[in-house]
Predict the 3D structure of the following.
Amino acid sequence: MTDDPELRRKTIALVGLMGAGKTTVGRRLAERLKLPFRDADAEIELAAGRTVSEIFEDLGETEFRAGEQRVIARLLGDPPQVLATGGGAYLNAETRALMRQRAVTVWLKADLEVLARRVSRRDTRPLLRGRNPLQVLRAQAEARYPFYAQADVTVELGEGSQQAAVEAVLAAVRAFRRARPAAGGAGEDALQPGNQEHFPVLPNREKL
């Protein structure tokens, strides 16, 4: 467990494209901080009594996004945790505002070709059914990156280990929280959207 209690004072919410490691890194991060881990997609499935793919197929993406917004709002009302969100969740203006109010938001950013290789290993993602993963990710990056860029911090992931990613997230959140009181002396609300720290992760042989 990290010895910095500041890192456990507020929920850490992970955002980014599919395959970025929000769930895998999030689980290790929560274990390191001794905080609960919540996966928004898993919580949506629990609430709906069906899988994300089934929700998309039976109700459509619009209904899924509405349910996603409600579930994330509920989760953000809970005590501090590590929260992994779906790739499209941060595009919702109300969700984005609530996350910035109640959590430290971290954009896990990785090369699109790396993400394409990861997501190609599974066929459970409804937005990829019958489509080229790299083409989908390029389109999503163009549409979503301007929103992800509003996260409090950005951690640029290479093909490094999960542990390296966890350490980078911890360093990014630690630096962000320490910087806030110094920004005009305004405390928790001192920094405005877009004020971020960027922390690259150097590659090694243990893959996410």
About this structure: DSSP finds eight helices and six strands in the chain.
